[in-house]
Design goal:
alpha+beta
Length: 494
Amino acid sequence: MDGQGDFVQPMIKGQNFALSALSASTDSVTLSLNWAAGAEGPGDADASVLLLDADGKVRSDDDFFFYNREAHADDPVQLLGKTPTGGGTEDRISVDLTEIPDGVERVVITASRYGGGSFGEFDDLYLTLSDGAGDGIARFDITDATTETAFVFGELYRRGEEWKFRAIGQGYASGLAGLAGDFGIDVTDDEEQTDEEQADAVAPVVPQPRAAEVVANEPVETVEKPRRVRTAKKKVVRPKLPEPGLAEDDSWRQSRIFSVSGLRNEQEREVRATSILLGVMAQVPEFGRRIAGKFNAPAGRIETFAEASFKRGDDRVRPDGVIRIARGGRVWTALVETKTGGNALKADQVESYIEVARHRKYEAVITLSNDLALDGEHPVAVDKRKLRGKVALRHISWAEITHEAHMLRHHQGVANQAHLWILDELLYFLRHDNAGCRASTTWGPAGCTCGRPSRPRLCGPGTARRRTSRRIGKSSCGSCACVSAVSTVSRSRR
């Protein structure tokens, strides 16, 4: 069991299966690479993907998706980035199988380590495969890793008109450069490269003929130097320290694009928080993909809407927002219901949105509140019969939204300075008490493995007694490192 689907197929090395045998929603899939630091201390790895032709080689360097590659909304493969889990790290990859070019026969899922680390140092190394609805359908545990610095986890491959998945579990001691080289990528993994070397890697070499050899109107032959893909990790640019402010008095407050003033009640908090979040998702593509990818949405052009109205029988219902993503002539749609502070999600509201989504053939209903959803358990118990069809019900907490914005802002990076500024403003808003997107925490008597309490009660400002209790489980407390499980994880991995 994986918390998302009714059944998760356990796999062993070499085993394969047809995606259609385990799910009816396989136009796109999400592969999650998971690992936990072992006795050697903290460690990290990076996912990558290769698209191979019938000869087992890439058609060009553009078929290599890895951390240094510039991402585009119409790419069939999207690296969604890493997220801390209760026990380690999860690196997620989205693959839109309907957009894989005809000449590609295999989609190989790999990962690599750097800085001298090996996969044998990880305690828990495995891959999970989820279908287009976000339900887990397969899991492949790797238990024989030793000194490998790169690993092929598995591959998606064509058989006639359908796609299959094969568990591989093959390691490389030569890192990502060696692995990619076996599939036709000419790479360099030098740690440093001068500006001149970078220019030489892309600039054509034009031989200069001697004066006696110049012939009028004769074109000069251009000889292009072979291009090499650089796999060395790019240096991370840290945020600059803020310059001294220009305020004459400490009472002056800096103006903000997302105001936290003038919020008189919880309804106004919900409207403003929803509009701000959806607006940033649409205007900062990296953030939009990162959040939408959690719900197995395709990568594509994102448009968001607030306070949409839909007819339901003789009445009308108004979810807090709508997310629409266009990709390859198709449009993925999710209805959004949000709560701030200590307000609880209501089952009848959520069920009404599920009915609208099913009637309109939308893909998902997303709920957002200060509740946590651990082990895939939704905070609201809804009638399971209403989930028949292809409507997925998903939940995310404001704490997770804040975490994803922080990780993108300070670690992964975005395309331009304006987007960084927008993320800064979003984080300021989400972390302000007036916004209602921060859960205050009190602790019950139950203890965790570190001896601290492990039953948080989450509530928002102005809700002294209305509280929603969610049990976190082992290693979850408010005063040690395991508090990250409370604020960053929607489900723990076993």
